[in-house]
Design brief:
The protein has 283 residues and is of the alpha/beta class. It has ten helices and ten strands. The protein has a ten-stranded mixed β-sheet, sandwiched between helices.
Length: 283
């Protein structure tokens, strides 16, 4: 399990979550710091060290991050690395051999939970492994989550994101809600349903069949609850994020124009109320 840290409160919260994830899965934690990261919001790190923010060094960043990782998991195997490169390059390289990469949302001031930094976005868009971006309350931990609920946004067929959600639900003993959003095409009649032969029902039934097909390989010990909801997928999932400990979405394989993050995942990474896992498709 790899986590990127730059000394900001957002990145230290990412360390907390990554330590939870590593302990839960029984894997070591690797904490990575890139020298060239901006030291915004450095006051939090300075307070923990008891020194002026201007005196904080890269070694200090790793010391505090390691301390945070072992605060709740004293027996966790932790390694650290400080690298003089751009952070996205470092984390993408680390991602090649990682089970997952965890990063903070990187915000500033009052907008700290609303803005996503360029590093986190680049890693979520390009990494070879799942990327967990920490959003929402600092009380939202991977272990003993407040809601006991994971939400996965479901596409047309079984995907790596759905498989990842199965595993996370199993590890946590959490409920899994599989959500399929649907919309009535704009060319459908706008007449009241009773007069139009209930076009909504036909689209909802199609969405339910697609959801069932996508969950066809659900393991016997994980029983996802099915939800088909009318509306834009990004809005439906944003609403669901307020009562989830983790929101899982997929990322399609690179196409003609290279790596791209869909509108749904992009919106969730900027505005979700809980951590978001972006899982690259493997097919």
């Amino acid at each position: 399990m790899v986590v990127g840290v730059d000394g900001s409160e957002s990145s230290l919260r990412a360390v907390d979550r990554a330590a939870d994830e590593a302990a839960l899965h029984g894997v070591p934690l690797r904490i990575v710091h890139a020298y060239r990261w901006d030291r915004y919001e450095g006051a939090s790190l300075a307070r923990e060290l008891g020194k002026p923010s201007g005196h904080v060094t890269s070694d200090d960043v790793l010391v505090v991050a390691s301390r945070r990782a072992r605060r709740h998991h004293p027996d966790l195997a932790v390694t650290t690395a400080a690298v003089a490169e751009e952070p996205e390059y470092v984390l993408l390289r680390e991602a090649r051999d990682a089970s997952a990469v965890t990063v903070g949302s990187r915000g500033r001031g009052e907008l700290a939970d609303l803005l996503l930094g360029s590093v986190s976005l680049a890693v979520a868009t390009t990494a070879d492994c799942p990327v967990i971006v920490i959003r929402g309350s600092h009380r939202n931990r991977a272990v003993d989550g407040r809601h006991g609920r994971i939400v996965v946004g479901v596409a047309d067929a079984p995907t790596a994101a759905v498989a990842f959600a199965y595993e996370e639900a199993r590890w946590r003993g959490a409920a899994l809600d599989a959500v399929r959003a649907w919309r009535r095409p704009t060319h459908d009649t706008v007449d009241p349903p009773l007069l139009a032969g209930t076009p909504e029902q036909a689209h909802e039934e199609r969405a339910a069949k697609e959801l069932e097909a996508a969950l066809a390989d659900a393991p016997a010990d994980v029983r996802p609850r099915r939800h088909t909801t009318e509306g834009l997928a990004r809005r439906v999932l944003l609403t669901a994020s307020h009562e989830a400990d983790l929101l899982v979405v997929g990322r399609r394989r690179p196409g003609q124009f290279g790596h791209r993050l869909g509108r749904v995942a992009h919106t969730l990474l900027h505005h979700a109320a809980c951590p978001v896992a972006v899982v690259p498709d493997t097919t």
